[in-house]
Amino acid sequence: MIKLDSKIPAGHISEKWTNHKFNMKLVNPANKRKFDIIVVGTGLAGASAAASLGELGYKVKAFTFHDSARRAHSISAQGGINAAKNYQNDGDSVYRLFYDTVKGGDFRAREANVHRLAEVSGNIIDQCVAQGVPFAREYGGLLDNRSFGGAQVSRTFYARGQTGQQLLLGAVSALNRQIDLGNVKLYTRREMLDVVIVDGFAKGIVCRNLLTGEFETYSAHAVVLATGGYSNVFFLSTNAMNCNVTAIWRAHKRGALFANPCFTQIHPTCLPLHGESQSKLTLMSESLRNDGRVWVSKKKGDIRNPNDIPEEERDYYLERKYPSFGNLAPRDISSRAAKEACDEGRGVKGGDAVYLDFSDAIKRLGQKVIEERYGNLFEMYENITGENPYKVPMMIYPAPHYTMGGLWVDYNLMSTIPGLFVLGEANFSDHGANRLGASALMQGLADGYFVIPYTMGDYLASYKPTAVKTDHPEFAKVTNEVKDLTNKLLSIKGKRTVDDIHKQLGRIMWNKVGMGRNEKGLKEAINEIRELKSEFWKHVTIPGSGNDVNQTLERAGRLVDYFELGELMALDALNRNESCGGHFREEYQYEDGEAKRNDEEYSYVAAWEFAGESKWNLHKEPLVFEYVKPAIRSYK
Amino acid sequence: METKKLNLKLNIWRQKNTNSVGSFVEYSVQVSPDASFLEMLDELNNSLELKNEEAVHFESDCREGICGTCGLVINGRPHGPLAKIATCQLHMRNFKDGETIWVEPFRAKAFPVIKDLMVDRSGFDKILQAGGYVSFNTGGAPDGNAIPISKEISSLAMDAAACIGCGACVAACKNASAMLFVSAKVSQYALLPQGQPERYRRVERMVTVMDELGFGSCTNTYACEAECPKGISVTNIARMNRDFVMAKVMSKEIEV
Lengths: 636, 256
Ligand SMILES: Cc1cc2nc3c(=O)[nH]c(=O)nc-3n(C[C@H](O)[C@H](O)[C@H](O)COP(=O)(O)OP(=O)(O)OC[C@H]3O[C@@H](n4cnc5c(N)ncnc54)[C@H](O)[C@@H]3O)c2cc1C
What we know:
Number of strands of chain A: 19
Structural class of chain B: alpha+beta
CATH superfamily of the domain at 473-604 in chain A: Fumarate reductase/succinate dehydrogenase flavoprotein-like, C-terminal domain
CATH architecture of the largest domain in chain B: Orthogonal Bundle
Helix content of chain A: 25-40%
Shape of chain A: globular
Radius of gyration of chain B: 21 Å
Oligomer: heterodimer
Order of helices and strands of chain B: EEHEEEEEHHHHHHH
Number of domains of chain B: 2
CATH class of the largest domain in chain B: Mainly Alpha
Structural class of chain A: alpha+beta
Strand content of chain B: 5-15%
Strand content of chain A: 5-15%
CATH topology of the domain at 473-604 in chain A: Methane Monooxygenase Hydroxylase, Chain G, domain 1
Largest sheet of chain B: 5 strands, mixed
Number of helices of chain B: 8
CATH superfamily of the largest domain in chain B: Alpha-helical ferredoxin
Distance between the termini of chain B: 73 Å
Bound molecules: flavin-adenine dinucleotide
Strand order of the largest sheet of chain A: 5-2-1-9-17
Largest sheet of chain A: 5 strands, parallel
């Protein structure tokens, strides 16, 4: 019987981490090199973890399916990273960042974890500066800040529109140094397909070498998964093409509980669909909402060009519904409002898009100022759509962007499988039901640079895991299971392509497990996903062999896990009879359409235990709010 | 939005693996002008898979021009006909109905073809793993504002740091030189105070490994800058050359 123990240290919130650091056991320097640690993933979380563990003297093996550590999806983060530095003297503090994050997450995150995140946020900036990350600076030579949604202070650090790139290159440079020094060995083009558990402890992984098709096994004293989020279950999302759930899903099937799978974030400002061949959705920075006004026609199915729709026939719905936040209402609220307008048939030419209009701002400030502020974004928009946003309003639509859910971890970032740690977007830890902008980069680096180096030592010193070699029979057993799955996939030779089926799954997820959910739709979704899954196993076609590079096979393997994940997301959404953050159950709303949380019954983390095909057991970790008292989020 | 589809002829390089001989194969496609170049290849692959033929292998990930994974030579030019974009940012409206398009992998001795349009660029990482970093362990960093850095300098460092590691500079160069890539990293650190302690040791090591890996020499044609999706400037190469000479002068091994 699994008992969820969050291992939150005792004491005042501001002292928990400090005390815990002191109370944790240490591994003496000479003994560190006797421990092997596997880190899967080289994004912000994985690269920072592998580098920091290598620096401490552990023997680290790092894995990525990319050709280089630098290609991890973290590279594409644009806006920035939060830190409670209070350089602006505008009233920021660790406590305020903690408070904003708990509230922004709609009171579904663990207070102690969030406070620790806020505590180490400042160290992250110092660390990155020391590595040579070229953050934006003011003329006086000091670091510059900007503000982001959900906060009233300026605490976001950035490097042009390429913050994720610069932070990742910084973390990867630290990783490269450890590779250079021989402390880390990096295995690229390896896809982890399973974890190996011996006597209840995580002891290694099975990978497919993506160049040769060979299955390889690696053993270690502990395994760290930092494999990112699963928004691509929707097929179309802002995530990179290869982001997937496989690593954490296979760990889930081996016993790691999956927490809050239905908490997904839909970002309001993305480019709308252009057609059937669309492969991903492009994010336009949230900052555009500072000067752009969002509107649709008051009429249904209005096919006029936007500039021909007179002022009085436009509905600036965000300004109308949320007069005090207007166009800057939080992500979940703005996204839902756009969907509502489009569902009523009032979207752009009756379709799925709304206008983001800069004409007032251009009139007020002049084109030059707008160009200075958003020039590169406007260029990017024109490059993709072929339209000039200085003349014609931009078209935007919400898109899946980030997954707050992930593997359940305790305060030490360890999953329910001893020795298996989960970092970054892959865990569920810090963002509750909604993540604030610029907080994912912060969390990934906090986990990797400042949390795991301590908690890993404590695990190794207290559990004293023994060394297991890859000739242990469990490795062969797991490898055979993975091999069988691959062979089965290759043998189907049906008539439908992987992408075709994935797109269909994406439509089910988007329509029924997307921005608005209801009991009927969720139940339908579960049935439709099951049917599609059996359709896949009968009719998918995967040309080529398993003995060399086969990208179709790689995608098929990931899709296999999305069916199961999709079903669990629907189940989790069905179980949560309330609306909170990114999870909006249409049955649970106030008369004005605002989300209705139910703290009495649902103030818990829903952690799901895999119990065989299409079966899960629910475990609840109650959430206790001692410091930030739950209140209705109002942005009116 | 109704848009007329374009009819195109594609000549795509197909090559089973590193050791086999490749050749161009012709395909006809119909594609929306709003689709991206890679989405056109996705559609082509979908139709090939339906016929149980192997997909044309090419690499891509973020499809926003920042991860550096994609990279094709289109009609003879790395990343295609437009300046300052990666392949994934190229849209079909830039082509004419009825046009024939040639699609090849990046070609360089140091970038062997893996399959079809995929190449092995791991040499880049080997160079970075030879000192392409600031030696600084996690923890104990001074406050981020302890050392002020002028806006101009940090902005120049950022210009260099913007490199996405795609390899177009190597593919564009007749000598397959990696000087633009290497000099961008060298410059980023050479410009910043944090990079000073290892400045000369770093450039020496990185250049040595670059030469060992079979990248060619620079003969100042500037083809690299012209094809760089991020517009990395060749002034970085000049900066690196200066530092390299300094490194040699300062090196104790050098005999006077
Ligand atoms: C367009 C966009 C913009 C964003 N902008 C911001 C922003 O401005 N601020 C912010 O805070 N957040 C932003 N985010 C969110 C943020 O970028 C991500 O949440 C974060 O970078 C995730 O980091 P990670 O290290 O957890 O995972 P990732 O960076 O996704 O890395 C995952 C790693 O795991 C590896 N991997 C995965 N599965 C396997 C496997 N089976 N085998 C081997 N390797 C595997 C991958 O190769 C990769 O190395 C943005 C996200 C998007 C999509």
